[in-house]
Amino acid sequence: IELENYKIANLMNLLNHYSEAKNIFHKDKNTLNFQDVSKKVYELITSEFKDMIYFRLDGFISHLLIDEFQDTSVIQYQILRPLIAELVSGEG
């Protein structure tokens, strides 16, 4: 068990270093990947500005088509859930 714990700890350390290096690379190159975009959007819609953002979107979205919904991540669903609720309520 100690050997397995040691292996897992080293793997977690390696993954942390990889993640840090990836973040530095993207920051230096001023780029984002799809996961980064989802995280940034989620941060924005859970911030103090969320009401303003949903207000601005309200006049623009009347239909929502989601292709490959089964591949939607949890964070992507959390982003979409308020929009879906607004659309199905008939008020948006």
Question: Explain this structure to me?
Answer:
- This protein is mainly α and 92 residues long.
- It folds into two domains: 1-31; 32-92, no CATH class.
- It is built from four helices and no strands.
- It has helices at residues 2-29, 34-45, 50-58, 74-89.
- Helix 2 packs across helix 4.
- The model has no long low-confidence stretch (mean pLDDT 88).
Task: Summarize this entry quickly.
With 92 residues, the protein is mainly α. It has four helices and no strands.
Properties at a glance:
mainly alpha; 2 domains; 92 residues
Secondary structure layout plus pairing:
Elements lengths: L1 H28 L4 H12 L4 H9 L15 H16 L3
Helix pairs in contact: 2-4
Number of helices: 4
- Which sheet architecture does the biggest sheet show? none
The proportion of residues in beta strands is under 5%
Distance between the termini: 56 Å
Outline the low-pLDDT stretches. none
The beta-strand count equals 0
Average pLDDT rating: 88
Percent helix, as a range, is: over 70%
Q: Please identify the structural class as seen in this structure.
A: mainly alpha
- What string gives the helices and strands in order? HHHH
The Cα radius of gyration reads: 19 Å
What best-fitting shape do the alpha-carbon axes yield?
Answer: elongated
Overall tally of structural domains: 2
